[in-house]
Amino acid sequence: MTMLNPDPDAALVERVKQGDVRAFEMLVVKYQRRIERLIGRMVRDVDLVADIAQETFIRAYRALPQFRAESAFYTWLYRIAVNTAKKALVDLKRDPVTTLTALQGAEDDDETYRAGLEPTDGETPEALLASKEIAATVNAAIAALSEDLRQAITLREIEGLSYEEISDVMNCPIGTVRSRIFRAREAIAERLRPLLDTREGNRW
Amino acid sequence: MSQPDSDRSPSESSRRILSALADGDATDGEAARAFQAWRDDADARATWHTYQLIGDVLRSDDLACRPKANEAFLVALRARLADEPVVLAPQPRAVDPDVAAPAAANAGATVRARGRWQGPMAMAAGFLAVITGLNIVRPFSHGTDGALASNAPASSPLMASATAVNNGGVVAAAQQTPAQTKAAADQLAPYLAAHRQSAMNAPFQMPDSDLRNVSLVQPAQ
């Protein structure tokens, strides 16, 4: 992400700086998956990935008052994630810790059930299947969109264009861009909701 | 033509705003409503997650995951954030080496934040220096304050400030045009005259060493 366009997270970041910790949760929900994937490329242990991601967000929260928006928020968060992962790897070399995953591998022969050694959700066959199903549903929903809606959401989410740039590309007012992107999201979300079960109780 | 948000159901209106906020296109008022919705409305929180998940999956299938995992992550993080001071709390914080590098990208920030105080502080210090400078210069320039001061080389900032003041302004003498100097002198003339008058009509007499007449010497045109 470059700073050619205004940082889309600027409003959220400012809100957190004003002391609204709940606004920081919105940034966490937005970036958790990308940060975990980034860390997962540096650290093989899946149990460590979540811990390092947590530490990344905590450090970002603490350092946020010093964030001056000279880079995009995500770029800044990305650097914190990389540094936190590097530090975790150094600490691991200095003081090797047997992680849950390692313990699990070592005790495969132990027939005693230990709840603490259950694989994390991200690696269970059910979770992997669910993830594939979610991806397939999103892709099918995109394919079913009208050309205008598909183009608008693609330019925004994949190409990272601003509303103004999309309005130039699509030769339509910014309000129309905004509406098309919303309708595209809603159409995809409609197909996705049965898989996400987000209507059951106050999950979030 | 898009329908105004106020004409829609609260839920749809809220989702439209969340969509705009996700792209950084929400107005201040809309953003405030979105933050409130995140606090109060479970549907709004689920919608925000769904929109973000859609964006991630569009960029890469690898990023698809069940909300259960995201929810567990957020619940754990919430517990840790609850132990953290609010980010604006005025407490000194030790520099974390792991965030130092990213923070370095914003390092100028702290300097600039300090800079906001440096301006007024420098101005106050400048005035103090000018007053001190005048007190130093005065014993040597008795009777010919302006002339002596303006002829003396401004070898130090202190003297430079004193020179500038004696020439009729706070701006450095070298930066003033003759027209500016004359205008400043014209402005000061009634002020100095009033001072002289006031000193003559003073109900009590100050010692000679402490009260002197002030004259303004105009530089050569």
Note the main attributes of this structure.
heterodimer; A: 204 residues; mainly alpha; 9 helices; B: 221 residues; 0% strand; elongated
Which outline of chain B best applies? elongated
Largest interface, Cβ cutoff 8 Å: A-B, 89 and 71 residues
User: Measured on Cα atoms, how large is the radius of gyration of chain B?
Assistant: 33 Å
Largest sheet of chain A: none
The parts of chain B where pLDDT drops under 50 for at least 5 residues are: 107-113, 139-175, 202-210
Mean pLDDT of chain B: 66
Q: Helical content of chain B, roughly?
A: 55-70%
Q: How many E-type strands of chain B?
A: 0
Helices and strands of chain A, in order, run as HHHHHHHHH
Number of helices of chain B: 9
Can you write the helix and strand succession of chain B as a string? HHHHHHHHH
Instruction: From the alpha carbons, calculate the radius of gyration of chain A and give it in angstroms.
Output: 20 Å
Assembly type of the chains comes to: heterodimer
How would you summarize the topology of this molecule?
The complex is a heterodimer of chains A (204) and B (221).
Chain A: H1 10-17, H2 21-42, H3 46-63, H4 73-94, H5 100-106, H6 125-144, H7 147-157, H8 163-170, H9 174-196
Helix pairs in contact in A: 1-2, 2-3, 2-4, 3-4, 6-9, 7-9, 8-9
Chain B: H1 10-22, H2 28-40, H3 42-59, H4 67-82, H5 97-105, H6 107-137, H7 145-151, H8 157-166, H9 178-200
Helix pairs in contact in B: 1-2, 1-3, 2-3, 6-8, 7-8
Structure write-up:
The complex is a heterodimer of chains A (204) and B (221). Chain A contains 9 helices and no strands. Chain A is globular. Chain A has 204 residues and is mainly alpha-helical. Chain B has 221 residues and is an all-alpha fold.
